[in-house]
Amino acid sequence: MTNNKQMNLGLAILAIGVMSFAGVLIETAMNVTFPTLMQQFNIATADVQWVTTIYLLTIAVTVPLSTYLFRNYSIRGLFIFANLTFLIGLLIDFLAPSFLLLLAGRLLQGVATGIALPLMFHIILVYAPIRQRGTMMGIGTLTTSIAPAIGPTYGGILTTQLSWHFIFIFLVPVLLLSLVLGLKVIPYHQVEKTGRLDMVSLFGLGLLFTGTLIFLSQIGTLFGWVALAFAIWGTWIFWHQSRHRDQTLINIKVLENRTFRLFLLGFLVCQFLLLGISFVLPNLIQIVNGKSAFIAGLVMLPGATVGALLSPLSGKLLDNWGAKRPILFGLGLSSLGWGLLTLILGVNPLWGFVFSHVVYMVGSGLAYSNLMTTGMSAVSDEMRGDGNAIFNTLQQFSGAVATSLVATIINVVQNHSQLGYQKATVLGSQLALFVLFLALIVILWRCWLFFRTPKAS
């Protein structure tokens, strides 16, 4: 590959990465606005979480289309469509006078991000030399993982000083920069259309994701059980289509690869934790500690910055040393930091939150992108597109599930505990973090067993 082509590859990844960055930034930036939104729109914790959940749900439903889209549309065309859709969503939310209109804008932003995320990794996996793949994946992950570093602070400053509406309008220049850069470096290539879109599979996937999230937010109600039934029905539809069609939305045979399954699960657990803590900690700091959205964002800043900056370094470690050391060491540090964070929530020292979060994010930064790279490297070239779609789809869905799950746990404790509202919020937050802590310990143990085998070494 010539230097010119390498430069264009890097700029193309940057252009799409900037859009993906904006998508993740706006996700975490909105988390610190929840107490404000609850007051302004007179809604409960279980309702306000849909600002994030509907966004992640839309991404999760859009990402499975990526394999079909890459086969039938040019990268340039997909990039332009995603960018313009994102811009429209930003303008709608900047002007949104109601909660429903706010959700509509979030839906459009989810469609755009659902195209941008797999598009960025598709370019890396297809065009980057294999010897540079770990590093390029780390750089690609950096563009999205650095967003949580500044997202809460960005959202906190604007919510405190201006209004949450400005979170959206200030991203318009960022999207325009991405659009101009992408138009310059992403060429148009004629694509020979192959296959038709499997609408039945897409319908089943939509039922599965939507039903699951509604069930989690309506646990214990008749509506919740009905939603669960639809989720199970959707699972059967998607599975049946995948097993009986030649061209499916996603070829789930890639899940028969045990190594792929293990590191996919580890990646999703890390995503659970990232989204769970971005919901729990900012809200706890505002509701229990009585601090502003700006302070809540500042508490998250050091850990998220460290974790983001480690992403490209962790990819370099994988290229040079292999997967074992960065993944196991990273998961171990994550477990230590998360355990400390769970224990000190009831004490509420802000410096303790910062320290524990930094320890956790150092571990996450070492393990997160390497789990994806290792899992994707275990599949064949023919199934790489399907593996990429599964990773990105379940990444967003797991984030939506994590947000919905922790919000539901906190809301249930708040409504049924004999404690006061603030103490119930602390107890609910500790319980939510403990549930996620158990999942982290399990995946650490499974990865340790995997790397003990001679083949893995």
SSE blueprint:
Elements: H1 3-31, H2 34-41, H3 45-48, H4 50-62, H5 66-72, H6 75-95, H7 99-127, H8 133-145, H9 147-161, H10 166-169, H11 172-185, H12 199-217, H13 222-244, H14 258-287, H15 293-321, H16 324-344, H17 350-377, H18 384-416, H19 421-452
Task: Compose a concise summary of this entry.
This protein has 19 helices and no strands.
Overview of this structure, please?
Helix 6 (about 75-95) packs antiparallel against helix 7, helix 8 (about 135-145) packs antiparallel against helix 15 (about 295-320) and helix 18 (about 385-415) runs antiparallel to helix 19 (about 420-450). This protein folds into 2 domains: about 5-185 and about 250-450, Growth Hormone, Chain: A (Up-down Bundle), CATH 1.20.1250; about 200-250. The two termini are about 30 Å apart. The protein is an all-alpha fold and about 450 residues long. The chain has helices at about 5-30, 35-40, 45-50, 50-60, 65-70, 75-95, 100-125, 135-145, 145-160, 165-170, 170-185, 200-215, 220-245, 260-285, 295-320, 325-345, 350-375, 385-415, 420-450. The protein is globular. The protein has 19 helices and no strands.
